[in-house]
Each structure stands twice: as structure tokens, then as C-alpha cells.
Amino acid sequence: MTQHKMQDPVSQYPVMDIPEQRQDEPGLDSKLLPKADHGEETYVGSGRLEGRKALITGADSGIGRAVAIAYAREGADVAITYLPSEQEDADEVMKVLDAIGRKVVAIPGDLSDEAFCKQLIKQASDELGGLDILVNNAGKQLYVDDILELETAQLEATFRVNIFAMFWLIKAALPTMPKGASIINTTSIQAYQPSEGLLDYAATKAAIANFTHGLAKQLAPKGIRVNGVAPGPIWTPLQPSYGQPMEKLVQFGQATPLGRAGQPAELAPAYVFLASQESSYTTGEIIGVTGGQHLP
Fold first, then answer.
1. Which end of the chain has the lower number of beta carbons within 10 A, N or C?
2. What is the pTM assigned to this prediction?
3. pLDDT tens figures, 91-107
4. Cβ within 8 Å of residue 139, ≥6 positions away
């Protein structure tokens, strides 16, 4: 079964029986129950990104892992970055990427550090021989149900990872990106329909959407497109690592019109489209992949 076969989207993946579980932040895919699908066995490429060179943040797990696999199978050389504590997951995805046969580079580090962001762009560009796709996907999400309990340290950390890092990476990458390059930012349904316990996270995702719209206008004359993807409830390690309260975690995604959570593999085609020349007349757009929780 591949992403090209017509299926009922309601039953394409089962409603998951999610047990109570907790992981330390940022969480590992290797400990996720049940396991997520990143397209390891299902994504089939067709050369849509042949010769392209992509950097994907947060690509050890979840959506980033699915995007890295899809890009490599579409013909791109890929650099991934992740926190050092996520090395176990990174090793897993690197095995998949190595088997595809494209050039792949793994660069661990902390995106909340501006100096690392600058070094990351240089290293990725040097090792890949250029950079023409930047996917800002890494994110920090911690559920706090009372603003009185939301600490300034968490607020600052969430903004540094979700907003500041995106800003630093784009600034560092632009001088090396050619006409035709693509920047893709991961926002969220939370930007439009915020949950009461994700005030800091939802605020960053709204800022990412706004930043994407504005930067797209600024960079259009330079021939660089800027777009975003807004995932809905997607089953990733963010959720059990205190991204959701337990009562929501065990029923995760069931309130969507499609009645189930999404899998990372279902996000990858949107990122492929926005990176490919097929979307040459698309910039400043946000594609919602939300299970029916539509964007405004």
C-alpha cells in the first residue's frame, strides 16, 4: 500500500488505542505507543526533488522524520538536525535515509542557541554542496492548564525554539539560497483554534503563520517562496511528553471530523508539494492537514 492508492481516509489508519503514557520532554519515537507511521514502508517517490538540497529541523521523529524520508525518496540530499538527547531516534531515521542512497547528514544541536543555528546552516550547506530547501519544523509544546502556572522560563523557551530559531535559520540561510529555493514553516491548527492549555505554543504557531505571510511578500521578488503547513492532531512524541493532558492524550484526534489522529506520513506530501516546482505559483500560503478542522 502506497500514498498513491485510493482509500477511505476515515479508515486508512485505525482509531488508535492509546494507553496512558508519559515521556520526558522532548520524547522519543522509539518509546511511542502505538508506533507512528512515517512512510518508511509506504512512501514512494517519483523524482520530484531530484538534485535538491534540504535541511529539515526536528527530523529525528514525527513530521520531520516523515518529511526527510519523503524528500530523500523524491531525489533530494538531506540534512537533519535534532537535540543530542534524541540521538536514538536520529540513528533510526539515518538507517532509513542511508538505505535510500541519497547524501544524508545528521547534525545534533540546540536550536534555542543562535550560534548553533548559524553554524548549522553553514555545516549543512557545506556538506550538501548548497541549500535550496529549508524546513523549519522543530517545535516545543508543553501543556499547562492555568496561566498562573505558566512560568516565564517556559514561555521564553517555547518562543526561542519555535520562533527565534526559525528567524535565525532563515537569516543565515538566505545569502546561500538561489532563486527557486523554498522555505517551509510548520505552524499548526493551534494558530487558529488554540487549546486552553497551550497558550505559549499556540501563540508561537500564530506568529509563525503571520511571519510566513509577511516574509513571502518580502522574498517573492528574489525568487524564493515561503509557505507553511498547519498540522492538526498528529501522533508524534510531542503528545506524550506533556504536550497533552492525559485525558486528552488517550482520545487524541478522535474529535476531528475524520474521527482519528493523523500520522506523520500523511503530512509529507504537503511538504513535498511546497518544495517542488509544482508549487511555483504558490507563496505565502498555509496548507492545513488537520483531519477536517479547517483553517479560516
1. C
2. 0.96
3. 999 999 999 999 999 99
4. 58, 161, 162, 186, 201, 204, 238
